[in-house]
Recover the amino acids of this structure.
């Protein structure tokens, strides 16, 4: 019975290597565990069903506390393996096996997160061989983002990560999310898009970024869900938001124009390659164009013919002859 207990404890440890969003960090200061951060109803366990209502705020309930943060400023969201945070825990903030993307969504608070109200403002998928989760582990669970230059008001912010360590099978990706409550201050002017995504419909179990094999040196990964909102990528500047958006737009075509210039030389190089293979085909007929073998022949004649046909050493011919004997 002692063994049985030990096995159960070991199994519990294995399955408990998960994570939750626990506190805000503003100007380097932790705002306190679960202050303005909803407590999930499901502990630190992952969500496997992408249509579950837990995809909205992990079963958390809205509370009246909020953290104040200026539009366009930095906002830190602290994750930990266990709740309360476990110092010295090797799986904190999350087990390193749980590789996958990290994302952040935002919605107006009065929506309660229900319906097509969420806008993606950040994502960190796979860069080279580094996953968003790898970066989160490096920062000891602190996910820091530049808040868009949002218009003042009450918002829900929803950081999320996906553990893809078993996700080569459908329905095995592990979703972790939590909701925080923020009051955006300042004179930001960016209004969230009128229609966002519904978190119970944002992903499909078969999305390429949800059902994905992380093993074997994956380098190309598509983060699931909508694209990051334009205003979010340009919104870090506290000045007029429209300008950074416009200046960001031309830079994208410029960089995409550069790659398109490279393909054309490649294309012109391509025809030269086939021309090189053509001459290679001509040597073949020369083999038969040597001394022709009579319709009936002796073994000796055949060996002689083989020698001249191959045009090389007798040993080569012998090898051929032996092969024919078989
Ligand atoms: Cu886990």
């Amino acid at each position: 019975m002692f063994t049985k207990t030990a096995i159960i404890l070991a199994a519990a440890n294995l399955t408990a290597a998960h994570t939750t969003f626990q506190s805000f960090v503003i100007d380097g200061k932790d705002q306190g565990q679960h202050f303005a951060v909803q407590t999930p109803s499901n502990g630190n366990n992952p969500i496997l069903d992408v249509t579950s209502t837990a995809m909205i705020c992990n079963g958390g309930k809205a509370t009246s506390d909020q953290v104040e943060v200026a539009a366009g400023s930095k906002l830190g969201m602290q994750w930990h393996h266990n709740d309360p945070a476990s110092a010295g825990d090797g799986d904190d903030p999350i087990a390193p096996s749980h590789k996958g993307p990290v994302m952040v969504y935002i919605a107006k608070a009065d929506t309660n997160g229900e319906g097509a109200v969420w806008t993606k403002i950040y994502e960190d998928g796979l860069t080279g061989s580094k996953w968003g989760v790898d970066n989160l582990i490096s920062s000891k669970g602190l996910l820091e983002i530049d808040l868009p230059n949002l218009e003042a008001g009450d918002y829900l912010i929803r950081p999320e990560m996906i553990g893809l360590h078993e996700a080569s099978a459908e329905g095995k990706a592990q979703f972790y999310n939590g909701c925080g409550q923020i009051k955006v201050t300042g004179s930001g002017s960016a209004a969230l898009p009128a229609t966002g995504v519904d978190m119970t419909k944002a992903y499909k179990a078969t999305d390429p970024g949800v059902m994905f094999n992380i093993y074997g040196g994956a380098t190309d990964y598509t983060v699931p869900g909508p694209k990051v909102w334009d205003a979010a990528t340009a919104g870090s500047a506290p000045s007029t938001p429209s300008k950074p958006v416009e200046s960001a737009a031309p830079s994208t075509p410029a960089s995409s124009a550069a790659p398109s210039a490279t393909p054309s030389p490649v294309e012109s190089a391509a025809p030269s390659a086939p021309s090189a293979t053509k001459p290679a085909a001509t040597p073949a007929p020369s083999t038969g164009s040597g001394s022709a073998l009579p319709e009936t022949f002796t073994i000796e004649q055949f060996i002689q013919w083989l020698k001249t046909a191959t045009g090389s050493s007798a040993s080569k011919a012998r090898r051929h002859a032996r092969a024919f004997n078989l």
Notes: The chain is about 30% helix and 20% strand.
